[in-house]
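P.,

For your records, the input lines for the assembly:
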Amino acid sequence: MKTVLVLNGPNLNALGWREQGVYGSMTLADIERSVAASAEKLGLAVRFFQSNHEGALIDEIHAARGTADGIVMNPGAFTHYSYAIRDAIAAVDLPAIEVHLSNVYKREPFRHVSVTAPVMLGVVAGLGPIGYELALQALAAHFEHGR
Ligand code: DHK
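Structure tokens returned:
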């Protein structure tokens, strides 16, 4: 069975009360429950991790080497400036999909740039919590067909 690491970066622990008009009312625990149910249907194992700290996220990405087959990650604001997270994803060389709950392209210009996207297999943005499940589906298809 393939294992997917689902990573969430800074402020995503605040989902449920944070800017509900932008991020919706589901908590991260609610989202993780739905993702776990989707994973089960797709025949994937999932592991969840959230941190507000760049180094902790990088350590977790490194730990995925040999313990996970793919990564789904919402890097939060690190998306826009963390070359270190980008380098960590590139280093482990696992298929990774970036997820954003909000449509970052409709928002402030600084959110239009992702420094992490170039090392990802793909990006899902603006579709809310279902984005994590779409990313899992895409990884399942990638594991099966290599696309
Ligand atoms: C989440 C964040 O915390 C922001 O910093 C990003 C992303 C967008 C999201 O839409 O999930 O800019």
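Two observations worth noting. Residues 71 and 96 are 4 Å apart (CA to CA). The domain at 2-145 is CATH 3.40.50.9100 (Rossmann fold).

Regards
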